[in-house]
Specification:
Layout (H helix, E strand, L loop, with lengths): L6 E8 L3 H13 L4 E10 L7 H4 L5 H18 L1
Parallel strand pairs: 1-2
């Protein structure tokens, strides 16, 4: 596996791609990549599309918490 930059992987617990993301995390970790994997318990695939950032209102506070966590992680990587 090629050298990956620092990677943060966010996965919804209820996601058709969950196993793919788990396998990617395992392969990257075994290859020595600096990768962090966060599973959002109870979250569904593409729930970010229903965040306050996306639609302008809160549907479920947990969605906004997950999106804020992702945004903060990206901001930290860019520092």
């Amino acid at each position: 596996m090629f050298k990956l930059p620092t990677t943060h992987l966010f996965t919804a617990e209820i996601d058709i791609l969950f196993d793919d993301q788990r396998l990617f995390h395992e392969a990257a970790s075994e290859a020595g990549a600096n990768i962090k994997w966060k599973v959002w318990k109870g979250a569904a695939h593409c729930e970010q599309s229903f965040s306050t950032n996306a639609i302008g209102k809160t549907i479920a506070p947990s969605i906004d918490e997950h999106v804020d966590e992702m945004i903060n992680s990206i901001a930290d990587l860019l520092k």
